Structure formats: C-alpha cells, structure tokens
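A quick aside before the break. I want you to see a complete sequence-to-structure record at least once, exactly as it would be stored in a machine-readable document. Don't worry about memorizing anything.
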Amino acid sequence: AGDGGGAPGEENVLEQRVLRNRYKAKVLDRFPLEDYHDTTLPPQVAMFAHPEGLTCKRAAPLPIFFTIIFTSNEGRRVYASVLTFHDTLPQESLDHMGGRHIELPKGETIWVPKCLCVVSHWPFHEAYKEFLKQLYRLSVSTSRIPLERLICNFMHEVPLPPEGLIRVQYTIADKTVYIQRSPTNVLPASRVAMEVLFTLLDKENVTLLFTCLLLEQKILVFSEKISVLTVVTEALLTLAFPFKWEHVYVPVLPLQLLEFLSAPTPFVIGVHPGSLAHRRQEFLQAAACPDDTVVVDLDHNRIRMPVSHEVPLLPEKQRKKLREHLEMYADVFDPSRKSLVMVDLAFPMAPTPEESDAKVETKWNGQQLQYSFLRVFLSMLQRYKEYLVMPTAEDPQPERLFRKEKFLEHCPKESRRFLSQFLDTSMFGIFIEHRIFEGSKDSEHIFFDEAIEAKSNRSALRFSKKPTPFLDDKLKAVTRTHVVIAPNDEGLSESSYTYETFPSMKPSLFCLPREIRSLVTGELQNRKASMQQQHTSALGSLQRYQRLPSFDTASVTKLTVSKSPSTTTSQQMRETVYGTWFLLHMIVTGEGDKSDARDQMELVFHILNRMRDETLQPDAASYHAVLEACGRAGVPDRALLVLEGMQTRGLRPDASVFGTIMKAVASSPGEQLPAFQSSPMARRSPTASWTREDSEHARGAVSPSPLLIGGSDLPPEPTSPSEGSLEPFAAHALALSPRLEPPKLSPSG
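That is the input. The structure line, written in tokens, reads:
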C-alpha cells in the first residue's frame, strides 16, 4: 500500500529495492593485516566466497560450509574454506539501500550474509572447517582467549607436516584435529569425503565421468548443494593419480562468470545456481552451456554427453575390472540418503533416535577404491617405459619423447581408440615430459614405475620377481605426533571475551609468533623454486610440450615460419622487443588514475594490431601481460577479447590465464555481468580487430537483471530495483591469508 503521497509503501520499497537485489562482496577484515612480500591476498576471494552475490533475507538461514578452489595468475591452485552465516543489517545500511528511511515492523529484522574464510595453497579442508566452526562458535559465546589470539596461533604456530613421518595435532576450544600428509611411497590420501561422489552417481556414471576427465573433455558439474561441487570434483581428480589436470579448474564458479563456460579449452567447472535452481532446464539449454560440454547433474544422477563429438569408452578389459571393484569397494549409491539433505550445513542436526537405530548396509573401502582406479593405468600403460625417447648426447632435445604409433601397435585393437586420444592429452604429455627429465627424483613417477613392477610380480608368468624398494620402505610411515602449542595468553587485560556478533579484529590483541620447530627440511624451498621455474610465463609449460608427437602443435602455438634463418632471427628479436614492452607496460598500468590506465590500454591494443599487420606473433607471456594490465586498468571486458585473440592465433589458454581473467573481473568494481547469455567472444568473428568498438560490444551484452552491482561508477543511491550499492557496509568476508614462507600451515610454508 502507498503512504498517501504517491511514493511506494514501506513493504514495496523493502521488496523492490533491498530484497530483490544482489550486491558485490568485499573483504571487511583480514589477517595478516598487510600482504606478505611474496604473497598477496587474491582479489577474487570475496567474489568466490559469495558466488551468487549478496542477497538480504527476512529470516537467517543456518550457517553453511563449502570449499572453493581457483587458480591464481601465477598458475597455482588456491584453496579457500568458507563458513557463511547471517548477521543483522544495520538501520543506516537499510535506509541507504532503499534510498529513504524504511521503518520495519516491530520485531522484524533484515539479515545479510557474512563469511569467515581461510585461504591457503595447502588442501587441509577438514582442519580449516573445524577451525572456522570453532571460531564462529566462540564468537557467539564467552571465551577466555580473544579470537585474535586464536587466529595468530592457527596461522603462525601450526607447522606444516612433512610427507609421512609426523602428524600435527591442533586443538581449538574442545575440538582436536590432526593434520598430516601421506608418505611419498603410498597413494595420496583423498582430502575430501570421496564417498559422496559414489553416493550421488551410480557406478556407470562415475566410470563415464572418469573417462571424460582422462580425455580432457569440458566438464560442467551442476548441483543445488554447493558443498558437494568441490567434494565431487576433488574426488574425481584424486582418482586420476598419477596424472594431473592441467586445465581450468573451478569447482564453484561465481554466476557472474558463467560465460567462462564458452572457454576454448578443457575445463572442470561446478555451478551452483542457488535461487535460480528452479530454472534448471533453462540453464542447461542456454547458450551458456555449449553442446561440446559434458553436463553432470549430481542431484538426479544424470550425465549429458557432448552432441558435437563422440567420447570413446574405457577399454572393455579395464572397464569390466573396474566395475567389479566398484561393486566390492564402492557400493554406496543412494542419492536420497538423509545425510545429503544437510550436507551444506556447517553444524549438522543431530539424527533422530529412529535414524540412529537405522543401519544401512553399504560396501565402502576408500583406499582399495583408489588402488582400483590406479590399476586402470597400471594395466593400460604397463609397458610405457619401452616407448620413451630419452635424450642423448647426440640429440639432447629429441623431437619425440614418446613413440605413440609403436605403443599403439602393441596394444589390443579394442583399446586403441581410447588410448589414441588419451595419449594426445596434456596430462599424458606432461607426465611423460616429467618422467624423462625428472623421473629419477620425482616420487610420484618412482611410485608409478614400481607399482607396475609390483603388479607384474603378482603374475604367475613372471618367475624372477623384481625388487620394489621404494614401495617396501616402511620408514616413511607416520609414527610421531607433534602437538601445537596453546594460544598465547600473555598480556591480556581481560579474563574473558564476549561478542554480540563476529567482531572487527583489534590489532592490539594480536601477538608476535613464537618460535616453533620446522618439521620440513628443504621441501618448501624446492617447491617454490620449482613453481617459479614452471610459471615464468602464463603458458611457458605448454609451449615446452609442443615437441610431443601426441600434441596438436597448432593448438599449442602456431610458429610456422618459412623464411631464411636471418629473417627468422630478426622476426624473433622484434617479437621479443614487443614482448618486453608489454611486460613493462603491465608493471606500470594501474599505478595512477584508473581513467588514465584505460586510455593506456588503447595503446596496448593498437600495438597488438600493429604486430598483426607486421605478421608478428605475440607470445604467451605477452598475452598474459596484457591480461594482467586489463585487470589493473579495470577493463575486464577487454580481457575476454584478449582471450579470443589467443585462440585465434593458435595459443591454447591454460588455467593461469583464466585465473588472471578472474582476477581482472574481481578487481573491477561496478561491472554488471550477464547471467544467462552466451559469451561475446563466442559470437565474434575470429578475424576481429582490437578496437574500442569491441569493448563497447562486450559491454552491450549486459543482462537486464544483473547478478552483480556495486562500485564507485554507480549513483550513491539506488534508482531502480536493479541498481544499488552495498559496498560501504554489507560486503562481508573475513579473509585469513597465510604466508608462503617459512614453514607453517599456510600456502606453501
């Protein structure tokens, strides 16, 4: 009802201007207070922690927990454990959102989401979950130790456990958790509840999904339960050991980034549409879900295979054996299981007496299950070492590192179709490259080779058994426990601390870390050096693999030049000069005014056009520098055009490229992004030029119902139901970002 003056009534204003809008999240508080010299807090954390944006509610939902994973622009995976709860919206914030004073009925409260988040390069999901749960529980009760001291203790005084030998025991409140890493000579233990994958999907669909992963298909996982997305995808990638997924991997994709589903590269992406779940069929049929994508509906045990091409099945021998093992070790399929109803809750409800008494007979053995999937590779690749091409003094960099054709000749005919495609994947190519150049010191390759020998030793046809000393070494097992010291309580002025809501942290209550004994020796330094070597450029690793016969060279880099040696050298020098210019420009972009930075980007695209006119080829590092500059200049729409340019010129983007684009999107406030529309880059001509019109074209694809609103470019007060800004008060995320060094429970230290 109106208020008699023609203005909308209180209820209409509340509904139209507050409750129906989605707002952009931002970090409210963090620890450490400043970035470390070698580690910055990724700007996309807030966007991923609230993948559907922020929405206000009349009733507060129960706290939920889920894990997000994204790839940084350095090419490293970042794990963020998120506990989301709801807090009351202050009256002044409510008035600002409504554009006028809103008088709520007596006793009514508007709730807005906040989250606590631990960011790390180490996937200790269960430890982070318990830490956040106890931290939240203590924030709504009375504690002898302030939350700031608990955070310091967890972030600075929990040492990183070595691979095997020692586990770390950590206690917060009345909860004790153990943190450990598997020894290098056993299968790495799954960091997630792998049973969830086999509960939601039946054995046939799990096998089919596993096959699609091995053949590096585009995989979209869909569920209304946000927490299962990461659990299922992490379990799937764990089963692929010793092979690693090298492409785009985003288990929970923010709805603002749906056009990433048009990416011209393999991906594993999870989508949780939340309040849009009732539009499931519209989403699955939309242009945002291309026909060349494997779509996995976890809620209904369905897989939609690509219509643009056929995916070969696992060889019959391996498929039959795997099916038998799944019957023995993973007979748990039951998507209606009551525990799945509460799977997202951070604090699950206690079961009823009837549920406690009910006994469900299932067959589950996670360790044997992992070995069953490993046996698929041991069987298919049993003789792979015979076909490696090792470097020699005469040929230190052989053109071919694996004799694919010879290998296939000695494989059963029914296996060749699948193996021919599998041997063409990046995961196999990278495995072979590492095996040749690092195999003697890489524990995963030593493990795999000795696992092949152990399998052959069990055969009755082998009379002379070969030793497997690495697998038989029992000294690597976990036999000791390191107990973390209790939080520092020195210098506290109060005997207890009580909070009405999760507080803003007080720097005066933080304390310096006490000296702790390192449990690892040299591992972190070697890891960091290895990462720096592997990611000196965005696609440097993929460029190295163009020598492999199993790769389509054109899909990695087009570098065919039919010129004289002197001309080729001159061209390469000019390309190097251009590349250096792009790198230097990226460093200075965004240092001053954003509008100046946007103008500078016009020069960047002019240079790209000039290189094209001169038939010069920008390399992967140049493209990566331009993408980084787009983020710093606040023009993420143009980053998508750069991505298209990479594809047009034959460069295949890897996960670090998409990580840079996500960072660019997250760093640009006030952008309205499309919800269910195909990507602008998917509709454009492959011969498009780098012009301002391209940028305007991308901006013109904005949906009339934006998922993301906020930033300085918007008016200070909302003028319609689709406009508004919650930035000053309601973008809630507390980010705890551990440093890289020295060895603590942190990204790599």
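Two observations worth writing down. The CA atoms of residues 388 and 402 lie 5 Å apart. The two ends are 60 Å apart (CA to CA). We'll return to this after the break.
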